[in-house]
Amino acid sequence: MENIASFLKTTISILITLAIISAGLFLWGKTQPVVELANNQAAAQARELSEQQYSAFDNQLVSGSQILTAYRRYESEQNFCLYVERPYVYGQTDANRQISMNPSESGYCRAFDYSGGSFKEGTEKDYNKVNDKIISDASSGFYISPQSRFRATLIKDHNERIAAIYFRAN
């Protein structure tokens, strides 16, 4: 009789343990979609916060002076470039119209397709680099007039990270 009572206690203990584990797994399975949704929302909010500093240039009309402001604002950004397509002036080559600027002056700017407004495929570099002193010097061939108007577009890389701003003359 003692063996049967011991067997029943052990069996009931195992069944109660299995019921508790099953209930826990059932609840865990029900909460996974909620946890996944919360993670996605948190990631979207973090991405939105990190991109908020660029919102002033997101598909906006800006002046030439705001390009200089953008250059100074993003000096601490590594591998961030500004691409500018200046207005056409008779006799001017594309080399003087299409310029790239790396505000941090470390690294390089990727090759850019000014007609399509996107990065070129491959690992080419854009060597037509200028800085804020050159674009603000009226005697320079790369001078950007503070009154000129540009359409600003944010350029994302293949990781959906904002990697550049493209300013196209209006």
- Alpha plus pi helix count: 4
Helix content: 40-55%
Question: What is the molecular shape?
Answer: rod-shaped
Structural class: alpha+beta
Main sheet?
A: 5 strands, mixed
Outline the structure in words.
With 170 residues, the protein is of the alpha+beta class. It contains four helices and nine strands. The strands form three sheets. It has a five-stranded mixed beta sheet with strand order 1-8-9-2-3. Strands 4-7 form a two-stranded antiparallel ribbon. A two-stranded antiparallel sheet has the order 5-6. The N and C termini lie far apart (96 Å).
Produce the secondary structure layout.
Blueprint: H1 2-51, E1 60-63, H2 64-73, E2 81-85, H3 94-97, E3 98-101, E4 109-110, E5 112-113, E6 118-119, E7 125-126, H4 132-135, E8 149-156, E9 162-169
Parallel strand pairs: 2-9
Antiparallel strand pairs: 1-8, 2-3, 4-7, 5-6, 8-9
In summary, what is this structure?
Helices cover 40% and strands 22% of the residues. By secondary structure, the chain is α+β, with helices and mostly antiparallel strands.
Distinctive features:
about 170 residues, alpha+beta, two-stranded antiparallel sheet
